[in-house]
Amino acid sequence: MTIRVAAVLVVLAVTSAMAQPSDAPEPPPGANSWSLRIHTTGGFTGQGIGSVTISSNGQMACGPAPCATPIAATMLQPVSTVIASVVNSPWILRTPSGLCRDCVQTTITLKRRDGDLVEVYRASWDDSQPPSAELRELRRLAFELRAARAGR
């Protein structure tokens, strides 16, 4: 019986480690450059609605379906505008509420270069815990960009 308990704990630890979202990559060189990662989990399938990673140099990666890169600067402009304003808004880190078993959990990681320093911002919430309007808009724009680039 002890072996079964140990086996279950190992499986849970591995599953938990695999479910953790990866961090945003380092931003590209240059003043005010940034990299953004939005990762979701949960929902009815437990897989969320996917993920997207975008950098100010136009590089993009998506999950679970691939998306084409690079992204034209004109397509990135709305995201860049929101990022410029979102760094001054409240960043929340909320654990999933127990009220909503099928809610999608969103985690946003933004890395922004400010001179030689790279600032890291993190936010997390589920659908029952509304974030600031700026964070909600950033998620919307990133997933719209992902949808526009899917399958290209």
Q: Can you walk me through this structure?
A:
The protein has one domain (22-149): Mago nashi protein (2-Layer Sandwich). It is built from 3 helices and 5 strands, in the order αβββαββα. The chain has helices at 2-19, 73-86, 133-149, and strands at 34-42, 51-55, 60-63, 104-114, 117-126. It has a 5-stranded antiparallel beta sheet with strand order 3-2-1-4-5, covered by helices on one side.
Quick tags:
152 residues; alpha+beta; 32% helix; Mago nashi protein
CATH architecture: 2-Layer Sandwich
Q: State the order of secondary-structure elements, H for helix, E for strand.
A: HEEEHEEH
Assign the CATH topology. Mago nashi protein
Supply the number of structural domains: 1
Query: Which regions contain 5 or more consecutive residues with pLDDT less than 50?
Result: 4-21
Spatial order of the strands in the main sheet?
3-2-1-4-5
> Structural class, from helix and strand content?
alpha+beta
**Separation, N- and C-terminal Cα atoms:** 52 Å
Helicity, in percent? Answer: 25-40%
Rg estimate, integer Å: 17 Å
Name of the CATH class:
Alpha Beta
Hey, roughly how much beta strand do the residues contain? 25-35%
The count of β-strands is 5
Mean pLDDT comes to 81
Number of helices: 3
Question: In one word, what is the shape?
Answer: globular
- How would you sum up the major sheet? 5 strands, antiparallel
